[in-house]
What does this fold into?
Amino acid sequence: MNRRNMECPEFSDETLVAFADGELADSDASVLRDALENDPALKKRLEVFVATRDRLRADFGSVVNEPVPDRLTELVMSQGMTRGNERHRRGRHDIPRLSVSRFAGSMAAAVACLVAGLGGFLIGSQTVRDTGSGLVSLTASAEPELQRLLATGADGAVASWSAGNHGGEITLEGTYRTRAGLCRSFSVSERTGTASRAEGIACLDANAWRTRMVAARDAADGTMTPATGAGQAVDAFLDAAEAGDPLDAATVRELIEKDWK
Amino acid sequence: MGVDIRLQIVTMLPRLRRFARSLAGHPDRADDLVQATCERALRGMDGWQPGSRLDSWLYRIMQNLWIDDMRKRRTQGIEEPVEQAFDLAGDDGERQVQSRLAAAEAIAALGRLPEDQRTVISLVCIEELSYREVASILDIPIGTVMSRLARGRRALGDMLGLAEPEVQPRT
It folds into this structure.
């Protein structure tokens, strides 16, 4: 920063913008913070940099909640893929998906996609942020009942969950053999609150069901759009895990009877 | 290319679309830019260093494609009616309409900035990248990032009525 002397520091716009963005070195930020307390004009100069950032962040924030066009998702997932993988996707779309109409959303859901415990299998070190959809608390609350259902429920089975004042339903959607072993897709809803809904995948790992991925849409405004974002995120996961067609009911029943061994 | 990378790119699509929207303005043109970016990335994954940030690499590809596209079109960026940028035809309430109008105003103002300032502002203010990350993506010094941010945001503040008129910029 430019300073004539310590009593009367003069700050460039570059210094102010770096301060507004939290990029100024601590020592310089401390000097500027002191100066701001006694200099209204300096404070006004700073405000424009804070206000422009806040305004743009707010105005463009909604873009990530818009449905991502199918052509983009399909391009990424299919370009250069083998015919076998394309056949797998068609196979899954041929079966009715219980969750699609209920878990309306967009591939913006992918932004709210919490990828849990992958251990480097799919996501590596990539961190995907939970955007405040209540996803973490929702799935954690439903976890005990989800575990029971994953171990003993047939595809299509529905169970209620409750935790404190919250409660809702879990539905098992499908069972697949994948590169990660046996995996089951599920959906979780909450009857009350901010219409939190999620759809996810759990895979068998050392005889225990681990939730590998959960996707939700941010439904804080209560609106529902006729897209299938969470479902697309699940499909994307299944594609990445090279899932085959969903197992038939008899095979799933046999696996349950043998305790998934 | 590994399917794991594809899934990472899919999860980044919403953010790529947002960056593209800030560059191109019109949603369709922005999505075309996202598509071109994905195609380029999928064809050239060997250009990505494993362990480095995939999103930064994609932003860089998009920025380069955008510059190429502008040169071909001989334009300075946003040329379509900005009212279309945020689907203003929606009828889902006064608050959302107002919010979209404000967004359209912001994207119009952003579109009037020089391209170099617009890109830096978008990556820092909208995509929330650090100065160091932006400097790396654009291959420019951090000092240049700061000067573009300062000039661009002061101009943006003037256009959006966020600046105090009596305050003079200092460099």
